[in-house]
UniProtKB/TrEMBL annotation, chains A, B:
Transmembrane segments: none annotated. This is 5-methylthioadenosine/S-adenosylhomocysteine deaminase. Keywords: Hydrolase, Metal-binding, Zinc. The keyword Transmembrane does not apply. It holds the Pfam family HUTI_composite_bact. InterPro entries: Amidohydro-rel, Metal-dep_hydrolase_composite, Metal_Hydrolase, MQNX/HUTI_composite_N, MTA/SAH_deaminase. The keyword Endoplasmic reticulum does not apply. Residues 60-425 form the Amidohydrolase-related domain.
Length: 460, 460
């Protein structure tokens, strides 16, 4: 008697380039792992299960991987759109003003939003990370957690463009301590559902020596380095002032471009720099929604992929994107890149679906555990109602429209059931691990307090 | 005693450039019209109503206007993505093969999809239009209906690029008859909820004399001409062969660019041609989703708007887009144009929200009736749950995040209630006029038959 059997699914296993479509498929789950994947007939003959989910008319696929998100920023969703000054004038006052309780409540809101749209793994870059980690324990979501490390002096509210920013040793030391605490307390915890990466905020915000110390730590703890790279012209300018080189060649010069690096954005990278990163083995996280809205730009992910790189997708942050939903990110990645290339064939649906699942998992170093439906992997999967009017009809021949419609038509609310680490986290769109309405009410309450303080400060 | 009072709403009346935000607002409805708009306190003192909707914590705004949609194409959603040959090889076989029952069932699926995402007015360009009109009668949606008129000979399955297409008088005559029948039978019917425009498919697909006859008819019936314009390089090439001019200068030369013209796409128009159209008073319908996916292009809507033009948004068709959802279209319009301009300030959220409501209504000639919440207008409005995790929190000061979040974060399923022409069409996400699951099941059934015929034909 096994724990759980899902039957009569239109399976997308993500085990091949087309999505691994298996009609009338089944998945057997024992504990927190996938025991078998096959046809319904095969698995029903082989197993009996304590719980059987008959999902006829529905698609089942691996849970989505949000490979870069800042959940602590959710409380100021939508405060800074349509501006040239997103960071400094838009988001800055909230970023400076937010307290720990507000950051943690926002994080919970963002996790709930993501879960309800089929995200099962969140590669979350934040502070205060030890407190945010508790949200992952509570919700049952898979957390790949990165505590922010920088050496920006406390009280520095504005980074000046035309001079080198000051970097402060003791700040860096204190923030690295938080990361070490995270590694000790959380790495591999909750049956391995929660793991930790190391997070220099950007190569311009820490010294070379701290970057190298972090690299050594990543080796010790067998984890990766999650860092914003070439994320803006301010950063490139800073690197040129500090080291006389642009970001990516400089990172190459200090031996930073390898499989340990999970590089986010590359907004200001040239195609050649992106290709260099790919060839050296570093992964790229593409966040099309936030960069499109904040900067009106499309980072060089096509050049990165053409050079053989592994790329995932990230929803980044609510004040920038303004949503944290991987269906949105898949569509944005596919269409923004078509528009950039003036070519409807680039970034086909099958490719972006892989980036939101197995390739995202590879990018953040979790592909042995998640990202596809295969025996032995962790049981992270989602059930999608393809009979929602906007996803219907499902056609299988002469071509299958399932993958194109998941990428170009689905919006996230079609996800009906979420299983993470073998545990039922959402059923019939009801979250089972937390009270959604309480999460939203608390976020609303604290956001009003935060906004009132920001309003008060800006009127002074 | 009035019919209906909506109270405690966060109102977006769309009566000013910022959206006409009114906290704790109310709308009074009598019959099919808005009687009054004001604060909850004002309207509760003034009226008592047979039905009172308390929508505290929710936003209320005019129903969305889908200013260009082909609902008859919904059954082949998602069959032709990521290709250079969308029309000829992708969609063509389905377009040739579909029968009337299938087209009508697809239309119903698309209308249901749109209603559930807050679209209340559909500017629908299709055939067989008299049958599709019945879907609007049944669902309670507002239909602005256009029967396709072209002179392409029957059996012509493929338009050749390098020679003039044949145009056939009797085909044009027969299709114009259908339009005349539509005008007589449907224009102004269902209490004015259903109206009719005239629809030459494109300036390359009808003769000059038929175009001019249609213009005269539009004057007689006091309606507008809904036409694809500069929709592809094939069309421009055809116009140059036929008349020695590109589309828009030629239309100008025959006096076609005026307030009567609702011009769709402008994909291949230059900025100067778009500006010319705007200055002459023709309206533009921008369909960013479908043109982005099908062509990897962003039409010159910015140049059109800068020249003072009135533009609406359209979702076009399911095999191209692949969804028919104005929240998707608003986000696409805002972000695609930022990317095209490499400037995050272009196409701000407030602007695209207007294009999906009042300006879309102006573009299709219905602004006296719909598009904003004002006394005397038809009661077409939607209630949006802003406590969905992806729309929370709502902040009102120091800046309001409601409009940016409706554009950049909402996905359509947050729409809880739809009222059209004073009638409750959806409540608690349940459609009250048609059985959603039957609509989806019928669409699925007929799509399988259609796809089987296409598969059979392509394998022969």
């Amino acid at each position: 008697m096994i724990d759980r059997l899902i039957v009569h699914a239109t399976l997308l296993t993500m085990t091949d380039e087309k999505g691994g479509l298996l009609p009338d498929g089944a998945v057997a789950i024992e504990g927190n792992r996938i025991l078998a994947v096959g046809t319904t007939q095969e698995l029903m003959e082989r197993y009996s299960a304590r719980v059987v989910h008959d999902v006829a008319g529905k698609a089942v696929m691996p849970g989505l991987v949000d490979a870069h998100i800042h959940t602590s920023m959710a409380l100021y969703r939508g405060v800074a759109q349509d501006t040239h000054h997103w960071l400094q004038k838009g988001v800055g006052p909230y970023f400076s003003e937010i307290n720990e309780a507000e950051a943690v409540a926002g994080s919970m809101l963002n996790i709930v939003e993501g879960l309800k749209a089929g995200t099962t793994t969140f590669s979350d870059f934040d502070n205060p990370m030890p407190l945010i980690a508790e949200n992952y324990r509570t919700t049952g979501a898979r957390g790949r957690l990165t505590a922010t490390v920088n050496q920006l002096p406390p009280g520095l509210h504005r980074l000046k463009v035309n001079e080198m920013y000051p970097l402060d040793e003791s700040t860096g030391r204190q923030k690295l301590e938080e990361t070490l605490q995270m590694l000790e307390e959380w790495h591999g915890k909750a049956d391995g559902r929660i793991t930790v990466m190391l997070g220099p905020q950007g190569p311009d915000m820490v010294t070379e020596s701290l970057l190298l110390e972090i690299k050594s730590l990543a080796r010790t703890y067998k984890t990766r380095i999650h860092m914003h790279v070439a994320q803006g012209d301010r950063e490139i300018n800073q690197m040129e002032r500090r080291y006389g080189q642009r970001t990516i060649p400089w990172l190459d010069s200090i031996g930073y471009l390898d499989e340990q690096l999970v590089a986010v954005h590359l907004t200001e990278a040239t195609d050649e720099e992106a290709a260099l990163m790919a060839k050296k083995g570093a992964a790229m996280i593409h966040c099309p929604g936030s960069i499109g809205i904040i900067d009106g730009m499309v980072p060089p992910v096509m050049a990165f992929l053409e050079a053989g790189g592994i790329a995932g997708l990230g929803s980044d942050n609510a004040p920038g994107n303004n949503c944290n939903n991987m269906f949105n990110e898949m569509k944005a990645a596919a269409v923004f890149n078509k528009i950039k290339a003036k070519d409807p064939t680039v970034m086909p649906a099958e490719k972006v679906l892989r980036m939101a699942t197995i390739e995202g998992a590879r990018a953040i170093g979790l592909a042995d555990e998640i990202g596809s439906l295969e025996p032995g992997k962790k049981a992270d999967l989602i059930v999608i109602n393809t009979r929602e009017p906007g996803l219907a009809p499902v056609i299988t021949a002469p071509v299958s429209n399932l993958v194109p419609n998941l990428v170009y038509a689905a919006r996230g609310h079609e996800v009906e059931m979420v299983i993470i680490d073998g545990q039922l986290v959402m059923e019939n769109r009801q979250l089972l691990t937390v009270d959604e309405s309480q999460v939203v009410a608390r976020a609303q309450h604290l956001a009003e307090q935060l906004a009132a303080r920001v309003a008060n400060r800006s009127s002074n």
